[in-house]
Amino acid sequence: MKKVYKSFQEAVTEIKDGSTIMVGGFGLVGIPENLILALVESKVKHLTVISNNCGVDDWGLGLLLENNQINKMIGSYVGENKEFERQVLSGELEVELIPQGTLAERIRAGGAGIPAFYTPAGVGTPIAEGQEVRRFEGRDYMLQTALKADFSLVRAALGDRSGNLIYNKTARNFNPMMAAAGNRTIAEVEDFVEADFLDPEQVHTPGIYVDGIIVGIQEKRIERLTVKQEA
Amino acid sequence: MLKQIDKGLVRETIAKRAEQEIVSGYYVNLGIGIPTIVANFIQQDKEVVLQSENGLLGIGVSPLKEEVDPELINAGKETVTASSGASFFSSAESFAMIRGGHLDLAILGGMEVSENGDLANWMIPGKMIKGMGGAMDIVHGARKIVVVMEHVNREGASKIVKQCQLPLTGKGVVSRIITERAVIDVEKDGLVLMEVAKGWTVEEVIESTNATLGISDELKVATY
Prior knowledge:
The complex is a heterodimer. Chain A is of the alpha/beta class. Chain A is built from six helices and twelve strands. Chain A has helices at residues 8-12, 33-42, 61-66, 82-89, 100-112, 175-181, and strands spanning 3-4, 20-23, 47-50, 70-75, 94-97, 116-119, 133-136, 139-145, 149-160, 165-166, 182-193, 212-215. In chain A, the strands form two sheets. In chain A, strands 1, 2, 3, 4, 5, 9, 10, 11 and 12 form a nine-stranded mixed beta sheet that branches. In chain A, strands 6-8-7 form a three-stranded antiparallel beta sheet. In chain A, β9 and β10 form a beta hairpin. The longest helix of chain A has 13 residues, at 100-112. Chain A is globular. By secondary structure, chain B is of the alpha/beta class. Helix content of chain B is 17%, strand content 27%. A ten-stranded mixed beta sheet of chain B has the order 4-3-2-1-5-8-10-11-12-13. A three-stranded mixed beta sheet of chain B has the order 7-6-9, with no helix packed on it. At the A-B interface, α4, α5 and α6 of A face α3 and α4 of B.
């Protein structure tokens, strides 16, 4: 049975200065809201963060930025916050930009025991400079290495004592690959099935990838509310 | 040759023409900006599945206020619905689908397109670099890449160029360019003018294009 944490502080206590962490989510959807808040409180610094985006100024990973806890950010689209721009321009923050599909696959490879792979994304562009390019079946591809992390912080809708996880809609995004690519994976779940187990047919992330679980109430902030006018 | 044209109307004209690229039965990825508007003009009788790279196959219409689910968004981070027959999946699965050549068409925005189909649409040197998102993967994945953009930039310079000055998103990836003035195909030996929009002449299009433009034998005028 998996460790079920009592507090978010306890859940992040092993994360030390200089750790590399993966944080699930696309925009603000599917981010482990309370684990991030606990990291802010823990004041851990010099973090390398691997996440598709970097939150907004007052929420998500933006809070860690604001606190100067991130040294390096690895993501695919990161400019939604002003503080991010300021820290990049002042040299306080190092950034590595990776095509979104390459980022997803590098993380998947990290959890799947594949050290590297070839992808067409980025060939002929500035990001291919200095990279190994090889031709297969008449097309050029570039070599990309796997990504792993000391800790992965993921968010799911449901979890059980076996560590099995189920995500909701587009909140799945990077979470399943990150769960597998973390040396230690902590899952923040909205609902914890205490007495029973999740339906094995419905499980998205098998429990083997998850080391600890904690239940948290999510704010689920919306970045761009778009609605249809009632007729 | 100064024409006062409403910006919104220009974008709508481009989006409506781009909709004609979508064939019933297609799986399509629409980029951010003008491409997103294309969805509003898809003919009712076409059966089209829109893919969103954050992990949704089957983007539906915008939700009513009471239907909004904060965990159901498109790649532009806007709240959406899932259409009938939709599916959700991880980002790795989503890009496997994209790179694996399973999408019929991607319609993307552009800053510059060159004579040989190079696309630049992610970065302006000297300005804050936000990232390429999924664009570099998509240009190598979808079977056909159509770029929709205004014909000229704010300074009036052609966005269709001999060689891109901006850092590339992909090399030789564009099949067709659609602007408010013309439809131009990228062929093996260069650009070919296929259609001219209403209100423009062939001469005006050639004059406002900073690249060598062949003219198709089947050139059509005033088509949109």
